[in-house]
Amino acid sequence: MNAVSAALDDKAIATGPAGPLLGDADFQYLRAFVLEHCGIALGDHKHQLVQGRLLRRLRALGLSSFTGYCELLRRDPHSELGELASAISTNVTSFFREMHHYDLLVDELLPRWLHEKRREGDRLRIWSAGCSTGEEPYALAMVLAEAIEQSGSKVDARILATDLSPQALETARRGEYSLERLAGISAERCRRWMLRGEGEYEGLACVHPRLRELVTIEPLNLLHPWPMSGPFDAIFCRNVVIYFDQPTKQRLFRRYAELLPVGGYLFLGHSESLHGVNDQFELIGRTVHRKIAE
């Protein structure tokens, strides 16, 4: 048993049919911790959700109470941060989700960028911030690779993919997906960019090595200092800020603006908006924003 849980009086631990119960004091601590370290605001109505989501972490860590889990966070907040954030947030993603964003890239942005950067050595950079299990950056890599081939460009093109969740990043690095998760990819692109597994990998497909060449996957907490200095031609931050409170959103979008040149693009999720949050961008399409001011 973990030393933290061993020190607790098990008789004093409230339990239910599924395991230990999350007391109000521990819930308030977790709310404050998550807001400070992740920018995620948890309302009172999230009490049961947090309890249910974190029960698996307690079992994995050998802890018998939420008090023990809170003590672990107090002692070493960073070791568990990614697992905690992954547990309480919902990672919903798919290949070519919100297809109108990819249509804009294919029809307008990528051809223009590759023409403007046609000199060898010029850089093209896209950031997938909150990449989850990798479907978004690999879909971006598909359209980028196709555009490069069509243009014959020798541009130094890369996609940075970051997330806080260790489990999501592990899946993204493997680049292996069940065949059911390929539903958003056209048949032509599936044949070109996804390699079907055989034997023990039957029912799976992995991304083409060419896509791996274009994508760099790294852990990153959006609230912490960023190691990259930009500039990026486009930043995709879709279905991420829905969890953040207003001050965190304002800080985050200011930081995104710092890494984009005037004319750079910010792509948000279908339920997200910059209205009343940031005035450095103009809305040019459905959840597509272009930087207009320094």
UniProtKB/TrEMBL annotation:
It catalyses: L-glutamyl-[protein] + S-adenosyl-L-methionine = [protein]-L-glutamate 5-O-methyl ester + S-adenosyl-L-homocysteine. Keywords: Methyltransferase, S-adenosyl-L-methionine, Transferase. InterPro entries: Bact_Chemotaxis_MeTrfase, Chemotaxis_MeTrfase_CheR, CheR_C, CheR_MeTrfase, CheR_N, CheR_N_sf, SAM-dependent_MTases_sf. Its EC number is 2.1.1.80. It comes from the Bacteria. The keyword Transferase applies. One of its GO terms (molecular function) is methyltransferase activity. One of its GO terms (biological process) is methylation. It is an enzyme of class 2 (transferase). Residues 22-294 form the CheR-type methyltransferase domain. PANTHER family: CHEMOTAXIS PROTEIN METHYLTRANSFERASE. Methylation of the membrane-bound methyl-accepting chemotaxis proteins (MCP) to form gamma-glutamyl methyl ester residues in MCP. This is Chemotaxis protein methyltransferase.
